[in-house]
Structure formats: structure tokens, C-alpha cells
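Subject: UPF0033 domain-containing protein

B.,
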Amino acid sequence: MNADKMLDAKGLACPIPIVKTKKAMDGLESGQVLEIHATDKGAKNDLAAWAKSGGHELLKSEEENDVLKFWIKKG
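Prediction pasted inline below.
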């Protein structure tokens, strides 16, 4: 899946991945996609809830070699 911007949040604990995601999303235009890589297992629920509450769309999430990957489309 193509993304307009990539955020590396590996090794960071909650709530830092969310804080960095919000900051990265602020720099995107509506409709653009942010790809996030995280290792904090809590990020799965946190990012899904954050995207929904912020009017964004979680397009896809997957886990690969203990790295959680998310694609969020800016609302």
C-alpha cells in the first residue's frame, strides 16, 4: 500500500506513538495516507481509536516480524 509519509515509532512506548502520529498527520493534506511502524502492542487499539475519534480512516493494519504497521488516511 502506498503512503504519502512514513513514521517510524518502533521502540517507543505509549503514548509517544500517538503523539508522533498526531504531529505527522498535522503535516498531511486531507486524503493523504500516513504509514506508521510501531512495536508497542498497545498501539493496535490506541491508533484505531485515535483515528476514529479524529475523523481519520484506518485503511489497513498488519504485523510483520514483531512490527505493527498501520496505514491511516487523513480525514
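Residues 16-26 form the longest helix (11 residues).

T.
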